[in-house]
Amino acid sequence: MSSDGFCIVGHRGAPHEALENTLESFQAARRMGVGAVEFDVQLSRDGVPFLFHDFSTERLAGIDRYIVEMHSSQVRGIELQGSYRIPSLQDALKGLKGIVKFIELKTLWPDGVDRNPGIVDAVCSMVEKEGAVKECRIISFDPRKTREVRERYPGFVTGIDIDVQTLQSPLGDMVREEMRECDLLVPESGLARELGKERERCIPWTVNSIGEAMEFMDSGYMGIISDVAPSLIRAMGLLCVSP
């Protein structure tokens, strides 16, 4: 595949420029030529979708609180490192028009319990409300969620996140099923090499070296997800394209 068709997705924005999963991080990525970003979404206690990767706020805010246990007003009041704030999905959709957004639905805790059972409706209805369906890709490690999106919101592009842990989990068979049914495959980079026949719909993560990025591009993969997307785009001389 030529470089014209290769997409480099900013993993949680441009985390080397601003704190991950914040509007500032995504805006920095866009300013630096990134045409697509990835972010994680989970629900507050009252069902509002917010952008945050960890289930606990301890790593980024220094307090051990859980997004799913807090009211949306409490989530909005949390000050992260560097005085950043946790954006809502609506904030992101309004502030990031014109670039592709990979929205990862966070559901599976380490104990396997789904503590965001209403996340598909909350996210997809918000995306529809903001008129952003064509700009969004709904992805998840939880195959039940990607299946629900496909069945209830057929106009959305879906992708299944893949790693060894989920393939070996009780949901492994369903993950393999969703690998056949979803539009996109989003595997850990080591597993991506085993999916060579599906490379044209495969976007591996997290690829941070130019050597590995070039390998995937030259092998015909659709794109990659990277913590250093702006740097790779510059180093590889790419124009930003959207998957």
From TrEMBL:
InterPro entries: GP_PDE_dom, PLC-like_Pdiesterase_TIM-brl. PROSITE patterns: GP_PDE (PS51704). GO terms for molecular function: phosphoric diester hydrolase activity. Residues 6-236 form the GP-PDE domain. One of its GO terms (biological process) is lipid metabolic process. This is Glycerophosphoryl diester phosphodiesterase. It comes from Thermogymnomonas acidicola. The lineage of its organism: Archaea, Methanobacteriati, Thermoplasmatota, Thermoplasmata, Thermoplasmatales.
